Amino acid sequence: MELFPDMGISTDVAGPFSTAIAMRPIELVLRDMRRNPDKVHRLLSCAVQCSLKWVERFYKETGSSAVGFADPVTTTDILGRKDFQEFSKPYMKRLIDGIISITGVAPSVHICGHTKNIWLDLAEIGITNFSLDNCESLEEAKKTIGDKMFLSGNVAPVDVMRLGSIDMVIDAVRTAIIEGSGSPSGYMLMTGCQVPIGTPRENIDAYIYAARKYGGRARIGRLPPQMGT
Predict the structure, then answer these.
(1) What is the pLDDT of residue 93?
(2) Is residue 214 classed as helix, strand or coil in its secondary structure?
(3) CA-CA distance, 210 to 177, in Å (whole number)?
(4) Which fold has domain 1-127?
(5) What are the residue ranges spanned by the domains of the chain?
(6) The predicted structure's pLDDT at residue 1
């Protein structure tokens, strides 16, 4: 911060379920959900407390309220909706409420994989900024929860950014802007997850080029004027 005073600073923590499986192997946590559910709840509560300790320290040291979390293990590819509602949802809410209490601002949230079946649950617990994986339909998310939260995503990071051609990157960016730009609460172009190591520089340049070409003069809830009506 002293060397780059004009540069913003942010931090991320892992979501409760992802933190839990970092402390105990996932196969054991999944087994415990049936055999020892009380212990799973204790583990998840501990995970939230640990994450909030870091957020407190970060906010105290930097004054920045830019906090987000990713919880890839809470995807419905691993947890069914019923299990999500019992074991993940309450602790995600605790984490969100805790971050808001500390920083005054709701965190951004990313969940890898399929999340369609829990979109409305995510809205219920106060998620207002949601990053969507590329395996889900941005158009459908816009129609389902676009009036409830700011959306971002979801250019494919591997099939397009890492392995695709320049033309594929440009086309994917254009499609994402078309699908996401009319979202009532706002939309930001992003990849569906982290850009992999080894992604060609020319593909990153193509992404930036397409974002500027098709996303310029964008306004919330509207398709950019150069994209038509």
Answers:
(1) 98
(2) helix
(3) 10
(4) TIM Barrel (3.20.20)
(5) 1-127, 153-229
(6) 58
